[in-house]
Amino acid sequence: MGLKILHANQFTTEELTDFYNQTRVDYLVPMPMSVAVMAEYIHDFDISLENSPIIIDEKTEDFLGLGMLGVRGDRTWITRLGVTPASRRRGAGAAIMTSLFEASKKLKAKKTILEVIKNNTPAQSLFEKNGFKKTRELLVLRRAPIRPPLSPEGEITWLYRKDALDAIRSSPHHLTWVNDIASMENASMFQGFRIQLKDGTRGWLVYRHKKRTLTHFEFNTERGSPVKMARNILLFLHLQYPRMDAYTENFYADDPHIPAFFDLGYFEAFRRIEMIKEYS
Length: 280
Prior knowledge:
29% of the residues lie in helices and 35% in strands. By secondary structure, the chain is of the alpha+beta class.
């Protein structure tokens, strides 16, 4: 089968959404996208469409697979990579990876980052063969819209755009691509708040506020117990938005705030593995 490589800037957002959804019909964790969500994703995560390959059958021109490349300075990020079920093990995945690597080298990237669903062994093997090394496990957590039975302790101060960005810039933690400062600067709706408890525990939460969902949480405990800080700040959050779902992704599995999520009714939806390829 002959393969032809086109680029995502040759297609409409509607076409890209359809292509992506074709690759996810039997995926380990189904993640379909709407056209609006795809457009937001491209904008917020700095996807370079001219460097994102679309693979088609050279003879029939049928769509086979795609990959998207986020670009920020000397880093690139591989995302939305997928091949249609009927086209797997026919070279499309390798062609996508080769195209993404070539683009990263042309852009003089020092490293390329990606995340893969844990237990997606074929994908992990493909990435490892291409020089990626596992770094950490990342948790994706969800919570149904249930009003908390308790009230939070402590004094709350709201953080609006400027102050929320300042808080994220001050974070001592390594942030993944979807949660870091560039993603938040690109986002249209986000805010947060600080909390100060009587025992001196203090910290902050920044989150994105979408139409029906709270997403992309970033925490930092500046003093005291991370679990106590996170539990009370999450209580306050869900009292403000009792009818909204919560979906937070890419928390490191060893993040000290995690127990507070489970105390508040969150559950683990799935895990990702962060992998990095460095260029010499």
